[in-house]
C-alpha cells in the first residue's frame, strides 16, 4: 500500500512541478495545443494543486491503510482525471502525444488504488 501511494504521490507531484515550471510544454504534450496568458496562470495554479496533493499523499512512517485520506484523495483524483482525459481524447480536439499514455497511467492507478481501498483490513 505504501509503495502504491508513494508512486501515485510522486507522479502527481512531478506533474505539478512541470506545470509550475512551464505549463505550455505540458499542455502541448498532453493536449496537443498551446496555452498562453490566463491559460498559463491556470496551468500553474493546477500545478500548485497537484504538487500539494502529491506532497500531502506521500506515505509517512505510520500505516497507510484503506481508510487513509491520502488513498481516497488519490483515488478520486485519478478516477476523475482518467474520465476527463478519456473524454478529451474521444472528442479528438485536444490530443497530444502524451494524452493516451496519461489516460492509461491514470486508469491503472485508479484500478490499483480502488483494489487497495476495497482490500480487507490487514492485507
Can you give me a brief rundown of this structure?
The protein has helices at 2-21, 23-31, 38-57, 69-91, 99-118. By secondary structure, the protein is mostly helical.
Protein described:
With 123 residues, the protein is mostly helical. The protein has one domain (2-118). It has 5 helices and no strands. The protein has helices spanning 2-21, 23-31, 38-57, 69-91, 99-118. The longest helix is centred in the middle third of the chain and has 23 residues, at 69-91. The chain starts with a helix and ends in a 5-residue tail after the last helix. 27% of the residues are buried.
Write down the Rg.
Answer: 15 Å
Strand tally is 0
Shape: globular
The amount of helix comes to over 70%
Oligomer category = single chain
Order of helices and strands: HHHHH
Distance between the termini: 9 Å
Given the structure, what is the number of helices?
5
Overall pLDDT metric: 86
Count of the domains = 1
Reported for the largest beta sheet, the result is:
none
Beta-sheet strand percentage?
Answer: under 5%
Q: Any low-confidence stretches, pLDDT <50, length ≥5?
A: none
Structural class assignment: mainly alpha
